[in-house]
Amino acid sequence: METENPKVVYRTSVWVTIQLSLAVNCAIAGMACVLFFLWKGFGAWTIGVGTFVGMPLLMLAVLLYLGAVVTDLKTRGAL
Asked: Which residue, 13, 30, 41, 68, could crosslink 57 as a Cys pair with Cβ 3.0–4.6 Å?
């Protein structure tokens, strides 16, 4: 007779959900800034928007995503 092990259900914490939504919003804003820079034909004034605003937003999005993943893995005991 086989015994079934019940599956453990983990609930995602509110902080992880907030981090993921912030990461997505930062990534969308950063990509919009970079896309604006590319659409305007590499103009001198758009370099500031694309490079000095868009790229830091994209890096912030990656850091927020990695923080959410590490937090979630620690919560589940996998890390």
From this structure: 30
- Please report whether residue 42 resides in a domain: yes
pLDDT exceeds 80 at position 21: yes
Residue 5 lies in a domain: no
- Encoding tokens for residue 34? 């970079």
* pTM of the full structure: 0.81
Contact 60, 26 (CB under 8 A): yes
- Counting beta carbons within 10 angstroms of the beta carbon of residue 10, is it exposed (0 to 12), middle (13 to 18) or buried (19 or more)? exposed
The string of DSSP codes covering 36-67 is HHHHTTS-HHHHIIIIIIIHHHHHHHHHHHHH
Integer Cα distance of 60 and 10 in angstroms: 27
Closest to 28 in 3D by CA, of 47, 54, 52: 54
